[in-house]
Design brief:
- The protein contains 4 helices and 3 strands.
- The protein has helices at about 1-30, 60-80, 90-115, 130-150, and strands at about 35-40, 45-50, 115-120.
- Helix 1 packs across helix 3, helix 2 (about 60-80) runs antiparallel to helix 3 and helix 3 (about 90-115) packs antiparallel against helix 4 (about 130-150).
- It is elongated.
- The two termini are about 25 Å apart.
């Protein structure tokens, strides 16, 4: 039933977004400016306030991020609503749900604070500091690309066609 799927979508988004927000609150409350080394020289928890995207790209462009996030949420929600009940779409459903959850997690930060709270840092490779919402977005985009290019065929997306079939 489509109603059940939409309820799962909403509940999963709420739960995953809360996981992201809770990790950010705990990290901010417990860490000092030096951070906490988990694996010395490799991985540490380190709080920063990121006003941009990854690597601080587009720093201070909060309005742009808000618009992009709203568009992504609207488009994905439209796809979720139109998604057929067939089991072959379950992975697509959950991938899109995780994507939206990550987008909402960082959206909340941008609206509330004007920046995103990042805290996971791979010191060994000097990777940009990131958060749980970033993991949701990155992993779901990778899976989505794999699904689109290697799993689903063009006809599997006919449900998105706005033209009525005769």
């Amino acid at each position: 039933m489509k109603k059940r799927r939409i309820i799962y979508y909403i509940l999963a988004c709420v739960i995953l977004t809360q996981i992201d927000q809770i990790t950010k609150v705990i990290t901010e409350a417990k860490l000092n400016y030096d951070g906490l080394s988990i694996i010395p020289g490799v991985f540490k928890l380190y709080c920063i306030r990121n006003q941009g995207a990854a690597w601080g790209v587009l720093s201070g462009k909060i309005s742009l991020f808000v618009v992009i996030t709203c568009l992504i949420i609207a488009i994905v929600t439209y796809v979720i609503i139109r998604l057929p009940e067939d089991k072959k779409y379950n992975l697509l459903f959950w991938t899109l749900t995780v994507l939206v959850s990550g987008a909402i997690g960082n959206f909340i930060d941008r609206i509330r604070f004007g920046y995103v709270r990042d805290f996971l840092y791979f010191e060994l490779i000097d990777f940009p500091v990131f958060n749980v919402a970033d993991i949701f977005v990155t992993c779901s985009v990778i899976v989505l690309i794999i699904l689109i290019f290697f799993v689903y065929k063009d006809e599997d997306f006919e449900f998105l066609n706005l033209k009525k079939k005769n």
